[in-house]
């Protein structure tokens, strides 16, 4: 019998490719940040839907039912063989590792530069955290708006979340929490932490009781 995939899965695969092209064209055409952000959010949503339906991450060079190619060393290697980072996967074909400057452009964020670090120090009166000074946290979105609010004494709060995956926390939880605690202290603002057990139930092979 022929090996066939549901039409909806192939349609979803094609929709991701189309949306990816849209994102690239918007960025190349210097579209507004809101327009780019909206397109990127749609792309992320489509990829999450694909992962839920296919049981594996979307790969641009691997349509449903086709094995992924092992390598391509030619000069026309596609973007699919470049750096790939999402909430579940970090991979690169380069011996030099991930090119984070390219990822900053791809995700539509901004580099944390010396000017921003100096502004944080001036606004808070505190020496910036060594995670900032050493480039461990290297990218941001709208941090200047946060600093505008802080300097104008407008209230804001911190929000983060964690997806429980074991009986204990691990270093992947600890590093963002260390930095979040520093932000909470220097800006003297409330902090909200959501435990995303509902997300774990949706995207992991867990029962409701296990996720709870």
UniProtKB/TrEMBL annotation:
The keyword Nucleotide-binding applies. Residues 59-79 are annotated as: Disordered. Keywords: Aminoacyl-tRNA synthetase, ATP-binding, Ligase, Nucleotide-binding, Phosphoprotein, Protein biosynthesis. One of its GO terms (molecular function) is aminoacyl-tRNA ligase activity. Residues 8-64 form the WHEP-TRS domain. GO terms for biological process: tRNA aminoacylation for protein translation. The keyword Ligase applies. InterPro entries: aa-tRNA-synth_I_CS, Rossmann-like_a/b/a_fold, uS15_NS1_RNA-bd_sf, WHEP-TRS_dom. GO terms for cellular component: cytosol. Gene3D superfamilies: HUPs, S15/NS1, RNA-binding. This is Tryptophanyl-tRNA synthetase. It comes from Homo sapiens.
């Amino acid at each position: 019998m022929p090996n066939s995939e549901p039409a909806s899965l192939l349609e979803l695969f094609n929709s991701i490719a189309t949306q990816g092209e849209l994102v690239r064209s918007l960025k190349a055409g210097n579209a507004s940040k809101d327009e780019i952000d909206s397109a990127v959010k749609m792309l992320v949503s489509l990829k999450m839907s694909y992962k839920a339906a296919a049981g594996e991450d979307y790969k641009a060079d691997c349509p449903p039912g086709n094995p992924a190619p092992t390598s391509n060393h030619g000069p026309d290697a596609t973007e699919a063989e470049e750096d790939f980072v999402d909430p579940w996967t970090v991979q690169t074909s380069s011996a030099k590792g991930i090119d984070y400057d390219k990822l900053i452009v791809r995700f539509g964020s901004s580099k944390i530069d010396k000017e921003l670090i100096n502004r944080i120090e001036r606004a808070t009166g505190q020496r910036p955290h060594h995670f900032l000074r050493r480039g461990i946290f290297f990218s941001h979105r709208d941090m200047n708006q946060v600093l505008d609010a802080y300097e104008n004494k407008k209230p804001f709060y911190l929000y983060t979340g964690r997806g429980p995956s074991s009986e204990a926390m691990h270093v992947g939880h600890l590093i963002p929490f260390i930095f979040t605690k520093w932000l909470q202290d220097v800006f003297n603002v409330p902090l909200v932490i959501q435990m995303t057990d509902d997300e774990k139930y949706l995207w992991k092979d867990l029962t409701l009781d296990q996720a709870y």
